[in-house]
Amino acid sequence: MKEIKRNLTDKERVFIHEYMKDLNAAAACRRTGYSAQNSDKIGHQLLGKTRVREEVDKLLAERLDKNNIDVDRVLDELSLIAFSRIDKILENIRNEDYERPEMAAVKRFKYNKSDYHQLLEVALLDKVKALELLGRYLGMFDRSKNHVRSERGFSERLNKRVREALLKRSKAERL
Question: Are residues 111 and 147 in the same domain?
C-alpha cells in the first residue's frame, strides 16, 4: 500500500486504498468494513472530507501521470474512433500499413488474399459511443430532457471546461 497522509484515520486510509482499486466509493466502504446498507452514503461522506478528497486527488494524479494519461490523449483516441473513415482503414489494411492513426478504430480484422480472390472482414470499435462520449464531454446533450442543447452559451461552457481541465492539470503538476 502506498504511503498515505498521517492525519487520516486508519479506516480512512484503508478506504482510500480500496477506493483506488476501482473508484467505487460504496464498494470500497463495504471492503473497508462499513455497513453495506449505508455504504453509498458513507462513501459519499468520506469523499466529501477535505483530507480524504485531497489524498484521493493526489493518488489519482500520480496514477494518471505514471500512465501518461491526460484529457488530450483520451480525446485524441476518442476522436480517432469517432471520425474514422472506413475507406482509409481498408486502404491501410490492403497496404499492410497497420501503424496509421486511423487503425486505432479497428477492433479486429481478417484479411485473406489469394491469386483468385480477396476476403476482408473488419470490425470497428463503437463509433456512435465515441461520438456520444465526445458530445457529453463538450456538454452537447441535456440528460434530463434527452435532447441536444442549444448552441447559445456553448462556447462559454466549453471555455469553462477547458479552464477547469487546465487548472486540474496545473494542480496535478504541482503535487
Answer: no
Residue labelled with grid coordinates 486504498: 17
Burial 71-85 (b: 16+ CB within 10 A, else e): beeebeebbbbbebe
Give the list of residues 6+ apart from residue 32 with CB closer than 8 angstroms, or none.
11, 14, 15, 18
CA distance 95 to 118: 13
- Residue-range definition of the domain harbouring residue 163: 138-174
pLDDT tens by residue, 128-162: 999 889 888 888 876 655 555 555 565 566 666 76
Q: Report the CATH number at residue 16.
A: 1.10.10.1400
- C-alpha cell recorded at residue 102: 486511423
**Inside any domain, residue 1:** no
